[in-house]
Amino acid sequence: MLDIIAPFFERLYETTGLNFSPFYDPYDWNRLLRGMWVSVELIIAIIALSLVIGVIGAGAQTSRIRAVRWLVAAYIEIFRNTPPIVQLLFFYFGLGAITPQVDMGGWYEPMIGSFGWAVIAIGIFGGSYNVEIFRSGVEAVPGTTVEAAEALGFTNFQIFVYVTLPLAFRFCLPALTNNIISLAKTSSLAYVIAVPEITYSLSGIWSDSVNVPEMMVLLFVYYIVLVAIIARLMSSLERRLALPGYGQ
Q1: How far is CA 144 from the centre of its chain?
Q2: How many domains is the chain built from?
Q3: How confident is the model at residue 38 (pLDDT cuts 50, 70, 90)?
């Protein structure tokens, strides 16, 4: 592909001075692709962790144990009321400093690298919003539906897993979509702890080639396309999971 587009972008640079070096320089091209791939991996991992936390937190909020409900409420207040970049730096430099290191045969590597801390920090941040999103979905489930499940002999756990959660997930999909899109964009903060995602990769390119405006345009286009794809997928999922009589 690079062989096909390289001549055009080389001529563009020679005639206009617009330097989109990743599209004609093999080294920059590989850095761009690597950054895009790491960015996608990071976003998928962050979203997955935030969803797991959201489901578990929403379930814990229905617990009969007051201490469990209090812990979930405290978690939400702490991580929803502090900036994600502060949380990211706290996890990486604060907790990372006391995390055990692994002997790699002559040198030591942290047990959790920058990628892992980015997933943990941003995933926990997103999970604090997902807990409330799933809670709103759980509360939207009709009481008669829960009573019918109880009449069939379902335990509270079975009702949550097989009845309440599937319906709650459908009810909260619009709000969940907004948070997932927000997390996809927030993942770019991993740049500050040197995760080699798209922002970090392009910053390396513009430092070498002094083509900041061109790389910023490329970065904008990348996130516009990525978020559009995520929104499209979530919209398609919402239509496929729609149930007649439940919010339709």
Answers
A1: 35
A2: 1
A3: very high
Helix H or strand E segment including 154: none
CATH number of the domain residue 213 falls in: 1.10.3720.10
Could you list the residue range(s) of the whole structural domain that residue 188 is in?
39-240
Answer yes or no: are the C-beta atoms of 129 and 58 closer than 8 Å: no
Tokens of 73: 């409420």
For residue 211, is it within any domain?
yes
Tell whether 129 is covered by a domain: yes
Per the listing, tokens 């001549």 go with 7
Q: How far apart are CA 178 and CA 132, in angstroms?
A: 13
Say whether pLDDT at 248 is over 60: no
Q: In the 8-state DSSP scheme, what is residue 91?
A: I
Q: Residue 221 and residue 23: Cα distance in Å, rounded?
A: 14
155-194, pLDDT tens digit by residue? 888 888 888 888 888 889 989 999 999 999 999 999 999 9
Residue from 100, 165, 180, 94 nearest 134 by CA: 165
- Tens digit of pLDDT for each residue in 59-101? 888 788 889 999 999 999 999 999 999 999 999 999 988 888 7
Question: Looking at the DSSP assignment, which residues form a beta bridge with residue 102?
Answer: 109
Coil, strand or helix at 195: coil
C-alpha–C-alpha distance, residues 43 and 180, integer Å: 9
Radius of gyration of the chain (CA): 23
